[in-house]
Amino acid sequence: MTDWTNWNVADIPDQTGRTAVITGANTGLGFETAKALAEKGARVVIAVRNTDKGAQAAARIRGDVDVQELDLTSLSSIRTAAEALKARFDKIDLLINNAGVMTTPKGTTADGFELQFGTNHLGHFALTGLLFDNILDIPGSRIVTVSSNGHKMGGAIHWDDLQWERSYNRMGAYTQSKLANLLFTYELQRRLAPRGKTIAVAAHPGTSTTELARNLPRPVERAFLAAAPVLFAQTADRGALPTLRAATDPGVLGGQYYGPDGLGQQRGAPVVVASSAQSYDVDQQRRLWEISEELTKVTFLDL
């Protein structure tokens, strides 16, 4: 049985004076992350595509919560959101790249990127780069990107068909995007390390009962939703704990990856875990970074 006294929301330090921007925080893991940080005193910005849903989520949270329109499937929207956030806040202490889509039917973003890779990785890469000068060198600032233990289920990045144009597999595209989250985090941390003030960290929620699984093929989805709560899943508030620990624990080090401590990392208390061998491949990290800059036309200031 999991020992939840290992680390839980009671262990989050006071966040008064800190500003946290969280993507996809109107529901599920993002909402629980926003709620916990706001209740600890942070000024929280819920960055979401649907601002009405964002406002409804903000109204359910006790604390200082704002809403920012952000569509991660559109580089134009990302640029507009970044400019608005930079105008409103002199500094951003926490950027939590939480939003994501999972196993969607074949589709593309507004800029022609495969939907899952474009949303989960390229959208967050661009947002991070565009907000970077408001995060960089702020003492204690962190960039936390939410990956998935599912990144271990796929092969390497499809360098010869990055956008899955020749043959589309919804799970393969999803696992590629989640591997990309880790490659991005580790490369970002290596570039940040010499400066010593801002760190990049990754987390994954294990298996949590959220809306993310809504695009699973129907028979699989029904079986998953019926069995998950009983067999191995955890609630969204517990699934958010690895992200919250990565974002707030004073002992966190740049480049660490947090996930549940239970069997198969499906559920449990948040601890440092290992990602796949290929996620630590420096050549792949650098290659993805360069390609991401080319595709998004976003470069990181001072790195």
Automatic annotation (TrEMBL):
Coiled coil residues, start to end: none
Domain of life of the native organism: Bacteria
Pfam families cross-referenced by the UniProt entry: adh_short (PF00106)
SUPFAM superfamilies in UniProt: NAD(P)-binding Rossmann-fold domains
Oxidoreductase found in the keyword field: yes
Keyword list, A-Z: Oxidoreductase
Molecular function terms from GO: oxidoreductase activity
Family: Belongs to the short-chain dehydrogenases/reductases (SDR) family.
NCBIfam families attached to this UniProt entry: PRK05854.1, PRK06197.1
Full protein name: Short-chain dehydrogenase/reductase SDR
